[in-house]
Design a protein that fits this description.
- The complex is a heterodimer.
- By secondary structure, chain A is α/β, with parallel strands linked by helices.
- The longest helix of chain A is centred in the first third of the chain and has 24 residues, at 19-42.
- Chain A is built from 21 helices and 12 strands.
- Chain B is an alpha/beta fold.
- Chain B contains 6 helices and 11 strands.
- Chain B has helices at 3-13, 34-44, 58-63, 66-69, 125-129, 146-158, and strands spanning 48-51, 74-76, 99-103, 106-108, 113-116, 132-138, 142-143, 161-166, 171-172, 180-181, 188-194.
- In chain B, a hairpin with a 4-residue loop joins strand 4 (106-108) and strand 5 (113-116).
- Chain B is globular, with a radius of gyration of 20 Å.
- The N and C termini of chain B lie far apart (46 Å).
- Classes of the chains: A alpha/beta, B alpha/beta.
- At the A-B interface, helix 2, helix 3, helix 4, strand 1 and helix 8 of A face helix 1, helix 5, helix 6, strand 8 and strand 9 of B.
Chain lengths: 482, 206
């Protein structure tokens, strides 16, 4: 899909141009949200788990250097090699070197948002390697040369006809029409890729400092096949994936799948402590801006994220606008925090892709105050400490936006100025209704009609009614029996 | 400075308010009948449970399962259950296995998962390449919740190796949210619930 326009609203308009598709998308995600709710209600300790998960993450971040070194030592004890990368480029170089030095050309990959963030696939392909995404949704978008539109459901923006067309165009599949036969076709296609692979790359859901192990969760079993057939396993993780103890795992595992898809647990929860016999395990720990996030008290908790996607499934904006409208590797509410913190200029529209309804915050399994942070980002665009790009340039909203915001603030700060604004709007709205559909105001009336404007403000109407009350009864009674 | 030292030095230079490591004490869910809850959870995960009474012969029950009878290539890691494929140290050799029979260390009532512990399967690819999976689980090894499960397996994790919670067969809903069972791994999961006495779990390692 080609993404037109540079901001969220114009990209959302592309998705909304097909009401059947966007309506289906909205409904499908809302159903997942419903399943999540059922699961959450079935566990009496749900809220206790959420609170505990947030506190474990907060603690781990507060002692991150210690946990990093203890994880490193324990992972090495099991025979894994641990690498550190300051940024995406360094991460990609490490992975490429590991593959090239072993003469490897065929790689299977399971879902990893970190490798999306680092744009690992294009980098490896550029260097002549064959990289196959093995999660079904990821495979579909890879064949279409699109980014995933959702972190848990990468192809949720597509209908089965799109998938059938993609499989037949790229893989020469026969005409298939149902999810069952399309999945079976992908199974056969990918089995050959798994068996021929020389290396498997996975992400990491959790890394346990105390044991030196990593945990990977999938429903399809693709990570497991990709790591148990080839001798080389490369696991790529952001450094916020650490948790202190094995006993912390159940806290997060109980929250993750229930929040993500409404399952009690994923089909496979694999624990890797060291390589398989005769194999190699390399763990690449990536910073890529995470240290900077840790230093921002207002946004530190965005590092708690376990990438369940619940905030996306519940978000009224995400459900209607689709993941591609965010143009960020992590879309939705959490992505609208992470992306502008990293590149404020490029992603300046994202903090505004939010109604501040707070539903994301209400469902987040680790207690990130998502909508509060989105509001903070808006404030910083206008008059807070400017957002800093990774390279140090500052971003502020345009002069027009800041002037308008300052003006609006000045008007709304005074009751009589606000009253006069109302008078002016009602006068213009009644005399020249077309004005209300022009310019920036027109965006509101594009898909909804403007409600009829009242003749008077509430205050004016109240004063009038008071004046019309019969004088004999004096002040209005406070009700019967008084 | 190398990347490792640069990252650690940067983090150590930051001022972050200390947050205490919270204790993990909590009132975690318990069930009046964990076995019944386990069976329900396995069903929700698209797996099936075959209960075996104490008097019945477990090995016979297993060999009479449809997925076992219809299998051309059977690999058994449970003593007493005959297979016709002895296994291999090369993971690719398991590509033709139709059914794999393994024993689980424990089951979790809250989510229907079984733990295939470190050391239970030497060539772990077998768990995922087999077309069908049959898991033998003693009833007494079913715990209520995942916290109890980690109390049991935590120490073994620190010793290294591979372990996996498996809940139902391999599945996906990536096409239009329609659930399809049999994505890349086993197309079915059958859990044979036995009593401790009837089980001579002597795990063979291929």
């Amino acid at each position: 899909m080609t993404v037109s326009g540079s901001d969220h609203p114009s990209r959302a308009a592309v998705f909304l141009a097909d009401p059947d598709r966007s309506g289906w998308h909205d409904n499908a995600l809302w159903q997942i949200r419903g399943r999540r709710d059922q699961r959450a209600r079935a566990l009496p300790e749900w809220e206790a788990l959420r609170a505990l998960a947030g506190r474990i993450k907060a603690h781990t971040l507060s002692e991150l250097p210690e946990y990093l070194t203890s994880f490193e030592a324990n992972a090495r004890r099991h025979g894994a090699e641990v690498h550190f990368a300051r940024d995406a480029a360094e991460h990609n170089r490490i992975v490429l070197d590991l593959l090239r030095s072993r003469g490897i050309t065929r790689v299977v990959k399971s879902k990893s948002m970190l490798t999306e963030e680092c744009r690992l696939n294009p980098w490896l392909e550029h260097h002549g390697l064959e990289v196959t995404d093995t999660d079904l949704g990821e495979l579909i978008v890879q064949l279409r040369r699109e980014p995933p539109s959702h972190i848990v459901l990468p192809a949720i923006h597509l209908r089965k006809e799109d998938v059938a067309q993609t499989f037949s165009r790229v893989l020469g599949a026969p005409p298939l029409s149902d999810a069952q036969s399309l999945t079976e076709f992908a199974r056969q296609h990918l089995r050959a890729k798994f068996l021929a692979a020389e290396a498997g790359i996975t992400g990491v859901n959790f890394a346990v400092a105390e044991t030196g192990g990593i945990v990977v969760c999938t429903n399809e079993g693709n990570a497991d096949l990709g790591t148990s057939l080839p001798a080389l396993h490369i696991a790529c993780m952001g450094m916020e994936k650490l948790i202190p103890r094995a006993a912390d795992l159940p806290v997060f595992l109980r929250l993750l799948a229930r929040s993500a898809t409404g399952q009690a647990i994923t089909a496979y929860t694999s624990h890797y402590h060291g390589p398989r016999p005769g194999g190699e395990l390399h763990i690449v720990i990536v910073d890529n801006g995470r240290s900077q996030l840790r230093a921002e008290p207002e946004h530190r908790s965005s590092l708690y994220c376990i990438r369940c996607g619940a905030c996306m499934n519940t978000c009224p904006v995400f459900r209607r606008s689709g993941g591609h409208s965010y143009a960020a590797h992590v879309p939705g509410p959490i992505g609208s925090i992470l992306a502008p913190l990293r590149k404020p200029t490029e992603h300046q529209s994202l903090p505004h892709a939010c109604t501040l309804c707070g539903s994301c915050t209400a469902v987040c399994p680790v207690g990130i105050d998502l909508h509060e942070q989105l509001l903070t980002l808006r404030r910083r665009q206008v008059d807070g400490p400017a957002l800093l790009e990774l390279n140090g340039t500052a971003y502020r909203a345009s002069t027009l936006k800041r002037t308008f915001t300052a003006l609006a603030g000045w008007v709304l700060a005074s009751s009589w100025r606000t009253a006069w604004l109302g008078v002016a709007v009602r006068f213009l709205g009644h005399r020249f209704p077309a004005l209300m559909r022009l310019g920036p105001l027109g965006r509101w009336s594009k898909t909804r009609s403007l409600p009829a404007l009242p003749l008077r403000s509430f205050h004016e109407e109240y004063a009038r009614r008071q004046a019309r009350l019969p004088r004999a009864s004096g002040r209005p009674s406070r009700g019967p029996g008084q | 400075m190398n990347a490792r030292d640069a990252i650690l030095a940067g983090l150590r230079a930051q001022v972050v308010d200390p947050v205490a490591l919270p204790p993990l004490t909590g009132e975690w869910v318990r069930y009046t009948d964990p076995v019944e809850q386990f069976c329900a959870a396995v069903g929700q995960a698209a797996g099936s449970v075959v209960p075996v009474s104490a008097s019945a012969d477990v090995t016979q029950v297993i060999s009479e399962l449809d997925v076992v009878r219809q299998a051309m290539v059977r690999c058994s890691l449970v003593s007493g259950v005959q297979g016709n494929f002895a296994g291999s140290t090369d993971p690719h050799a398991f590509r033709h296995v139709d059914v794999l029979i393994v024993a689980a260390e424990l089951g979790v009532a809250e989510n229907g998962a079984v733990w295939i512990g470190t050391g239970a399967v030497k060539v772990r690819a077998a768990l995922f390449l087999a077309q069908h999976l049959v898991v033998l689980l003693p009833r007494a090894e079913i715990v209520d919740n995942l916290h109890q499960a980690y109390e049991r397996i935590g120490a073994a994790l620190s010793l290294g190796g591979y372990g996996c919670f498996i809940s139902g067969p391999s599945k996906t809903a990536d096409i239009e949210q329609a659930l399809v069972v049999g994505a890349h791994g086993p197309r079915s999961l059958t859990i044979v619930l036995c009593s401790a006495e009837s089980l001579a779990v002597e795990i063979k390692v291929p």
